[in-house]
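Researcher: Here's a chain I'd like modeled. Treat it as a single chain, no partners, no ligands.
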Amino acid sequence: MIKYGEYNHLKVNREVDFGAYLIDEDTKQEVLIPKRYIPENTQVGDELEVFVYFDSEDRLIATTDTPKAQVGEFAYLKVVAVSRVGAFLNWGLTKDLLLPYREQKRKVYTGSHYLVRIYVDDKTNRIVATTKVGRYLEDAVLDELELGQEVDIIVCDRNHMGYQVIINKKFLGLLYENEVFRKLEPGEKTKAYIRKIRWDDFKVDVRLQRDGFEQVDDASGKILKALQENDGYLALSDKSDPEQIKARLQMSKKVFKKAIGGLYKERKIVIEEGGIKLS
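Model: Modeled as a single isolated chain. Structure tokens:
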């Protein structure tokens, strides 16, 4: 069965002037892929990975373009227009994604980004978005995530506690303000690590640095690189202000002290009164 709003692996069944028809071999259902989306040298019988959705005329079509998210995933998307039926979001495809008024937690504005979940509306059978994401928090976090695990995150809105983030496009998380040691931009994609899983509400806390010695190893490498780029000397020590260390090396003072202690024991640096230098 062809799943719309998702990726499908379909075979090229027949060619036409304006593209080709792909087929699901189990159900024999066909879907058109317009000519502009067909990879070069594609032949009848080849299998393609395509995203299937409805075009501007509500026809089911396939594309090799990559959307920013698919059905069942969270995304941080920009409003490009507002009309009488709702707002339209840029999700990376030719046809924008509808965010109906009934699915808006609060009023949205053109040009602003919002955290949404993409789903298929049972009543209209359309692919739409919602900002009412709370109902989609899942206990699947218990099976798919574990403490210390490396994950992909998308940075969303900032609040009094820190940054709301999307984890692996499937889960919502929080990155606390005191865990951030560099500037973050909304929409930025980066790596993070699972810090805590809250079993009561299925929310997840993340951090940008690894725990323990892995984190110190990363910090040690960053310090050595900074020393090499600064003629072998940094005016930072265990007595430096934490904000000064954060601004220069994007790490906490605690991690910095552990790292320079290790580098000193390995005789890679010399610790002086006002700073450190390469041995």
